[in-house]
Amino acid sequence: MDLGNNYMGCTDLENGETAPTSLTRRGFMSGAAVLGIALAGSLAGCATESTGPEKASKDSTEKTDAGTAAPDTIDETVDVDIVVVGAGISGLSAAVQASENGNTVLVLEKAAAAGGNGAGTEGIFAVGSSLQKEQNIEIDAVEIIRTELEESQWRSSGALWYDMVSHSAENLDWLQNNGVTFSGIVDNYGSGLFNTMHWWADNAGAVGYVPAMQAAAEANGATFRFATAATSLVIAENGTVAGVYAQDESGQVLQVNAKAVILASGGIGANTELLPEAGMPQDALDDMIVMCVPTVSGDGFTMARAAGCKSYLPNASIQSFCAIEGFPMDTEPPYSTLNCGSAIATCGLGIWVDQDALRFTDESISLTFNVATPAITCMGNRESYVIFTQTLLDNLSTDPADKEYLDAALETTLGKSVFEAESYEQLAELCELDPTVLTDTIEMYNGFCAQGFDGQFGKPANFLSPLAEPPYYAAKISNLFIVVDGGIATNIRAEVLNDERMPIPGLYAVGLDGAMLWHNVYTQNMPGTCVANNVHTGRNAANSAKEYIKDTV
Length: 553
Prior knowledge:
The protein has helices at residues 25-43, 89-100, 130-134, 141-151, 158-166, 168-177, 205-208, 210-219, 299-306, 342-346, 365-368, 373-378, 390-396, 400-413, 424-430, 435-451, 529-552, and strands at residues 9-11, 18-20, 76-85, 105-108, 123-125, 182-187, 197-200, 223-225, 228-235, 241-248, 253-263, 289-290, 317-324, 351-354, 384-389, 418-421, 472-485, 495-497, 503-509. It is of the alpha/beta class.
């Protein structure tokens, strides 16, 4: 899991409500991971996862009018050098750097306060930082970069990874110089490959990062407009981007004339119409549990697409984990490791089957490889189930608080998202699976457990636990959706690219709007890299915009 990109609220996409909570993804996910490993050991003895319709690029079949449509009336006009759309991690980074550069800056934020998804982040990646040096932490940056490229099958850009990693220590020093505070803890987040995670003060961006960066930008002369949503781009007659239109909560329409626009709106996470373009199956949206803030609705992507950007959505990486619908989220510590059924789904001790009742993966991959991988693996299925026994439930609920949580969740989910039966055939019928195929799948798996070797996918022997005695359970696996990394194609200068991969003059995209480090799968092995990329691209965009403005004036 990331590893520095954590969120504190659950959102229902249908009603748009957000329930603030102090629950962190580390508390939610790593607890389940630790429990899963412990259970694997304990159960191993049972057996031997401006307007205008003019195009800013040559052509785009995806182009719509929404992102470049001029409002009928303008209530206020503002002139600045740079307008930043969004005040999360990347937007604040861009605002501070641009204002440091001497540019006049206006930040538009859709929500009532700064932070966005970044308020819940826990820290940031860096290599060679002063904090690491103080703690004698030495890491070979080349090993990090090569590992990331290998895990993307060399489809990600090594130039982008090198640029981010080689500037990470400098970026961290820059943050500290601007008042960002850290706890002093540097670790591997409990599951990463290296000790690259630098924790914010109080382990929260809302405390260590957001207030300091907003204050730094304002001290440099930047201004903020909250509860003000950018609605479309201003496109000049020559095709360059020349500002944005926005509307505040009272309905007043603002025209911001700017020499450069930096999109930092947080990606498309809460936009159910765009998620399928990133690979999320439409039928998976119905029971999806969402943790990103509801303001992350693809505003930046929609505007960039209208200006003729090349879409990166087909290659964007989805940060999503596995859950069981009907399992509530804890909001107060101590948190149950069973949040959203995470431990049941990803502890590695059950059997995962698809709509054809066939096993399709090593069920322990969330603990042995990458905690986000199981959700990605399931996206190729129409349905996915985890099958387990009472023994697993008993072992997951030895703590009285966990047992109370589990009993309450099962009471409301049995017969809906969780099914109980006395035989394999009965369980198959409840899940509308082929009884013969499911029985064969389970019996084959039980045979692997007996021999101590998974003859299908090589699951480690300590995770092999047979489904030997009834009652048997099957839980339908849902997505616990976090965010989408990327959507707008960009280059190393954070310039938005058109279909010919040429920059659209005056338009930049940063953070989750323009993330290009990951290709389809968010590897999650380097703690804090998503936040590091947000900070770095924000700075890159501001510096690129400075040069663009200087050259075009």
